[in-house]
Write a structure and sequence with these properties.
Elements (H helix, E strand, L loop, with lengths): L13 E7 L5 E7 L1 H10 L3 E4 L4 E4 L8 E8 L6 E7 L27 H15 L6 H29 L3 H21 L4 H10 L2
Parallel strand pairs: 1-6
Antiparallel strand pairs: 1-2, 3-4, 5-6
Helix pairs in contact: 2-4, 3-4
C-alpha cells in the first residue's frame, strides 16, 4: 500500500470507520496509524491505535469480539478509512452491537429494506457465536439440520396454504416465517446471503 496517498493528522493518525460486512451497519469509529494499517492487512483482523494508551490494540484481543477484515478503503479526500468487517459479538464496549445507539432522529415510517435480511442473518450468526438462553435461533441450531429442515418445510406449506386462500396478510406473515427459517438453514449449511445473491446474479 502507498501510504503517501493517505493524509494522516499531526499525530500520524487517521480516523477509521468499521462497517458490518453483512448488514452495512456502522459499528464504530476508531483511529489508525501506518503500523496498525500494516498489521491489519498482514493479519486480516482489525488493529487500531489507542489514543488514550498510545499503543496498538487488536480489536477483540481480550473480549474475543474480533473484526475479520473483508475490505479496506479510503475516502475521496484521502483522510478517512473504511473497514468492512465480519464482527464477532458486539462491537461496542457497552455490549451493544454498534457504538452508534444514541438516537437523535429516526423516521419510524421509513420502509424496511432488503438490509433486514442481512441484519437477521447477522443476528443468527451472532446467536451461534454467543448463545442466549431461551433463544429460538439457538434452539434450532442446537437441534441440527433435521429440525431446521422440518421447520422450513412446515413454513413453506403454510405459505402455500395462505397463497391458495389469496390472503395477502397471511401470505406476508408466513413468508416472513419461511425466510427466517430458510436463513437459519443457510447459516447452518455455511451458505451466506452473498452466496445466494451471487448465484441469482449469475442466472440473470
Amino acid at each position: 500500500m502507498d501510504f503517501s496517498q493517505l493524509k494522516f493528522d499531526a499525530n500520524g493518525l487517521i480516523p477509521a470507520i468499521a462497517q458490518d460486512a453483512h448488514t452495512n451497519q456502522v459499528l464504530m469509529l476508531a483511529y489508525m496509524n501506518q503500523q496498525s494499517i500494516e498489521q491489519t492487512l498482514e493479519t486480516g483482523y482489525a488493529t487500531y491505535f489507542s489514543r488514550s494508551r498510545q499503543a496498538l490494540w487488536k480489536k477483540g484481543e481480550t473480549s474475543g469480539h474480533t473484526q475479520k477484515l473483508v475490505a479496506m478503503r479510503y475516502d475521496c479526500d484521502h483522510d478517512a478509512m473504511l473497514l468492512t468487517v465480519e464482527q464477532v459479538g458486539p462491537a461496542c464496549h457497552t455490549g451493544a452491537k454498534s457504538c452508534f445507539f444514541n438516537d437523535v432522529y429516526v423516521d419510524e415510517d421509513a420502509p424496511a429494506t432488503a438490509n433486514v435480511l442481512q441484519e437477521d442473518y447477522a443476528t443468527i450468526a451472532d446467536r451461534a457465536a454467543n448463545p442466549v438462553e431461551g433463544s429460538y435461533t439457538n434452539y434450532l441450531l442446537d437441534n441440527g439440520v433435521e429440525k431446521i429442515c422440518k421447520k422450513v418445510g412446515e413454513e413453506a406449506s403454510e405459505t402455500i396454504i395462505a397463497a391458495m386462500k389469496a390472503n395477502k396478510e397471511e401470505v406476508t406473515y408466513e413468508a416472513a416465517d419461511l425466510l427466517y427459517h430458510l436463513m437459519v438453514l443457510l447459516y447452518q449449511q455455511g451458505v451466506t446471503l452473498d452466496d445466494v445473491w451471487a448465484e441469482m446474479a449469475r442466472r440473470r
